[in-house]
Amino acid sequence: MSKYLLSVVVDASVYDIPLEDAQPQFDATERFNDELKAEGSWVFAGGLGRLDEATTVDNTGADVVVTDGPFAETKEFLGGFWVVEAPDLDAALKIAARASKVCEQRIEIRTFDGA
């Protein structure tokens, strides 16, 4: 089985949805997570905090530079993820389609190096 990263691609407006309005989506996502666990595909998953609360560390030069916010200026970014196991890309695509439905966002799939 290979491991796949299913990235949830969002824009900043997703964080402005009132919690009570987003609760049905959270509930659907939790049910989906339970399905993945029952199927044996679950490795781990998580939602991420607001982009404007990110910190970037750059130690590629002579000094460590720490800046508030994301490295790149972008309208869409990683809002959450699943790491799943699947026998092949076709199976991972089917899982991603289900993930996209429950979280109501686009999903990007990437394999892990050596997977």
From TrEMBL:
* Any Pfam family: YCII
Q: Where is the YCII-related domain?
A: 20-103
**Gene3D superfamilies, per the entry:** Dimeric alpha+beta barrel
- Coiled-coil region list: none
SUPFAM superfamilies reported for this sequence: Dimeric alpha+beta barrel
Q: Which family does it belong to?
A: Belongs to the YciI family.
This protein is called YCII-related domain-containing protein
User: Which species is this UniProt entry from?
Assistant: Antrihabitans stalagmiti
